[in-house]
Structure formats: structure tokens, C-alpha cells
Amino acid sequence: MSKPDRVAPRPPELPAPWHTPERAALQAEARTFARDVVMPLADTLDPQKAEMPRALIDQMAEKGWFGITIPADHGGLGLGVFEYCLISEELARAWLSVGSILARGQGLGTQTLDPERRRDLLEKSARGRWIGSIALSEPTAGSDLAGVQTRAVREGDTWVLTGTKRWAGFAQAADFIEVLARTRDPEPGESRSAGLEPFLVVKEPGTFPPGMTGRVIDKIGYHGFLTFELDLDGVRVPESDRLTGLYGDQGADADAGGFASVQRGLNIARVHTAARAVGVARAALEDTQAYLQEREQFGHPIGDFQALRFALADMAADIAQARAFWHQVAHLLDIGEPAESESAMVKLVATEMAVRVTNQAMQLHGGNGYTTERRVERYWRDARLTTIFEGTSEIQRRIISDRMLPKP
């Protein structure tokens, strides 16, 4: 009996109704870049827990990818959430952190009180010359951002920030850090989020500003940039650097103010996470498809065994389902729908899928999967984080159920 032909993995294309020639071209460009540029760097640097080189960031900046959602009249590509997630999925297929670094542009850190300065920062963001970090969570406030205790006390035209932030990725290398802080305690009857405001802490890349120190958190995955716990002890921020919102989303209401403007940015972040999770799961699927044809046992490629073939089929079906879902939700956001429940649903579905698929990929690789000789262990480690950041799976379930039933 002759051996079956070795069929190379075929990456998915955009289906109708989401396909346009322009999107197909963007997808192809990102896919080629991920394969030829990002993957070799990931293979070398991820085992060292090293940071991605600035040269890689500059290459992405040249393509305009830090300004995908920034209007063209501010130097951006003027595209939507769909295109942002489309490119991110392809990059995450090679290295999750590279699919994530794009979020540090897209107008982040530009929502200043001065419109002229905002325009200048938007143009810098679009060029990849204004890349930031977000410091929202704290040791005792993660999913419950309304529990933030970092204080901002006004002294004349300056705000003085004091507290501790955790999970601030890219903080030291960034041009700025967005810090969520409490300017006052809520009044009786007010929401617990009342008094929370975002502040722009401008700094030199590679350093922390006066009054701030950082400790690297040693992660098991999501390498490519460092993640910090930050101590703020009298960090001074001018009133002009108090922001009107977080995430820099161009579709948000700039007048909504502070915490109230966070929601749309969170929804976009959740769909972005879903797309990144799909990228990681695709990587595991495609590597496993190749491995099942490469590895032989009992005189046959192990892909000849029905149980393994069926497992691969289930993986492919799960990925296709999650991928179609993020396409749908990104489209809803682009046409102006709030899509809060849908964003939570797609984040939940896609990230839990990524954990299952990468775990199954490890199993199908057998002992070889439990080594650093194969990329599948990287996908497995990175996928596990996607169920945690941008709101845990439990938080997504709470968001969904709270919109279906009366709150207890």
C-alpha cells in the first residue's frame, strides 16, 4: 500500500459576506509577514523569554498597522475593528504577543483634553511612534475595575498619583502609560466606578518616570514583551494629561468621560482577544495536521488512524465556528452596534476553544508535544492566558447572564 501524499496545511480564507479584495490583500500581507518575519523570531526569542526587537515593531509601523482604526486624515488606514482583528489573527498565529502589540497603538493615549494635541498624538500613534501600556488592574482589583484604589490627588494644575498597578504589559518600553486612578470616593447612591479617571503618564522608552518603579512579573507564556507590577509614589501628571477615555477607540464618545467611555473599548478588546485566540488555535491545528502526516507508527502515518483523524476534524470545526463568530461581532461593532453581550460571548467561546484545541494538539503530538522542540507547547501556554486577560471566562459568563436575567 502506497503512502498517502503529504498535504500541506491550507490556511482559511475570508468567506462571504466578509470577503472583499482589500481585506483579502490585507490578510495575505499579514499572513506572509507572520510566516517569514515573525515566526523565526518567535522560535528564537520565546524560549529565552525575550522581548521582540524594536526593528520588528518598526516594520509593522511601516505597514501602517499601528493605525488600522485611526482615520485616514490623521495618518491612519481608516479601517475598522474587522480589519484590526483580521491582521491580529494572522500575527497571533505566529506569536501571540505580536498580535497583541498592535493594541498599543490604534489611538491609545491620545484622548487628551486639548484637541490640537490629540491630533498630533493620533498622527504619532498611526506612525507607530506613540506606543503605550495600560495600567488598569491592581493586586486587589482585576476583573472588578470599580475596585481600583490608586489615588489621584489634585494639586493646582497637577495630579499626584499614588498606588500599585499590576499586569502592565510593555510598560518600560512604552512611550507612555495610561493609569486608571480614583479622584474621589463615590457619593451615596452613585456607581462604584464614580470618580475613576484615566491619566496619561508620559515617559522616555526604556525608563520609568520619577516616582514610579517596576518589577517584572515572570510569566509562563505570552513572551515577547515584559509585564510589570508598578509602584506609584507621587507620580505627577499635569491636568492636560487627564484623559477623556481609555483605549483610544475612534468610535467612542469623547464626551462620555472617564469610566463611562471604557465599555466600547473593552468590547473591541474582547473581540480582538477572540481573534488572537483563533490565531493561536489555528497554529496548533496546522502544526498538528502536518505532524499527523509526518509521524509514523506501525508502518503508517498516524494520520491514518481514525481516532486521530476525527480529533483533528473536531479541532478544525471548533476553530471555524469561533472564527465566523468573531467576524460577525467585529462587523456589529463596525456598524455601530454596542454588541456588549456578543463581545463577551465571542471572547468566551473563542478562548475556551483555544485552550481545548491546543491541549488536543499537545495530545496528538504525544511525547514530542511535551518538549520545547515543537512549537505546540508555545501555543498551549499562550492559549491558556486568553481565558484570563481582558476579563476572565467567568466574567464573560456574568456579563452574558446579567443581560438575560435580573441581577441577584
UniProtKB/TrEMBL annotation:
<feature type="domain" description="Acyl-CoA dehydrogenase/oxidase C-terminal">
    <location>
        <begin position="257"/>
        <end position="405"/>
    </location>
</feature>
<dbReference type="InterPro" id="IPR009075">
    <property type="entry name" value="AcylCo_DH/oxidase_C"/>
</dbReference>
<keyword id="KW-0560">Oxidoreductase</keyword>
<feature type="domain" description="Acyl-CoA dehydrogenase/oxidase N-terminal">
    <location>
        <begin position="20"/>
        <end position="114"/>
    </location>
</feature>
<keyword id="KW-0274">FAD</keyword>
<dbReference type="InterPro" id="IPR006091">
    <property type="entry name" value="Acyl-CoA_Oxase/DH_mid-dom"/>
</dbReference>
<dbReference type="Pfam" id="PF02770">
    <property type="entry name" value="Acyl-CoA_dh_M"/>
</dbReference>
<dbReference type="InterPro" id="IPR036250">
    <property type="entry name" value="AcylCo_DH-like_C"/>
</dbReference>
<dbReference type="InterPro" id="IPR037069">
    <property type="entry name" value="AcylCoA_DH/ox_N_sf"/>
</dbReference>
<dbReference type="InterPro" id="IPR006089">
    <property type="entry name" value="Acyl-CoA_DH_CS"/>
</dbReference>
<comment type="similarity">
    <text>Belongs to the acyl-CoA dehydrogenase family.</text>
</comment>
<dbReference type="InterPro" id="IPR013786">
    <property type="entry name" value="AcylCoA_DH/ox_N"/>
</dbReference>
<feature type="domain" description="Acyl-CoA oxidase/dehydrogenase middle">
    <location>
        <begin position="134"/>
        <end position="235"/>
    </location>
</feature>
<dbReference type="Pfam" id="PF00441">
    <property type="entry name" value="Acyl-CoA_dh_1"/>
</dbReference>
<dbReference type="Pfam" id="PF02771">
    <property type="entry name" value="Acyl-CoA_dh_N"/>
</dbReference>
<protein>
    <submittedName>
        <fullName>Alkylation response protein AidB-like acyl-CoA dehydrogenase</fullName>
    </submittedName>
</protein>
<keyword id="KW-0285">Flavoprotein</keyword>
<dbReference type="InterPro" id="IPR046373">
    <property type="entry name" value="Acyl-CoA_Oxase/DH_mid-dom_sf"/>
</dbReference>
<dbReference type="InterPro" id="IPR009100">
    <property type="entry name" value="AcylCoA_DH/oxidase_NM_dom_sf"/>
</dbReference>
